UniProtKB/TrEMBL annotation:
Encoding gene per record: fliQ
Regions that span the bilayer: 20-41, 48-69
GO BP: any one term: protein secretion
Compartments where located: Cell membrane; Bacterial flagellum basal body
Membrane-protein topology: Multi-pass membrane protein
NCBIfam families hit by this protein: fliQ, PRK06010.1
Name the UniProt record assigns to this protein: Flagellar biosynthetic protein FliQ
PANTHER family for the chain: FLAGELLAR BIOSYNTHETIC PROTEIN FLIQ (PTHR34040)
Length: 88
């Protein structure tokens, strides 16, 4: 396996990782920002207030995005398996 092929596999893996984890992290960021803004505007300084909405939003996003995530990971594994079978 050449260095260029290794870089290609690594680049493809990073893109798949960003496609799979990106939407979940973006939802967690937006929900955290909204709750923090709400806390700042109302001066409620409860530290545990942020966790429940964020957990619910991330869980709902996981349920909604699961087919997309499975397809992205499955196609990546198919490409990797094809490279293994072809010998490089």
């Amino acid at each position: 396996m050449t260095g260029l092929a290794i870089i290609d596999v690594a680049r493809d893996g990073i893109f798949v990782f960003l496609k799979v984890a990106g939407p979940i992290m973006l939802v967690a960021l937006v929900v955290g920002l909204a709750i923090s803004l709400l806390q700042a505007l109302t001066q409620i300084q409860e530290q545990t207030l942020i966790y429940v909405p964020k957990i619910v939003a991330v869980f709902a996003t996981l349920l909604f995005m699961l087919p997309f995530m499975g397809d992205a990971l499955g196609s990546y594994m198919t490409r990797i398996a094809a490279r293994i079978v072809s010998g490089g």
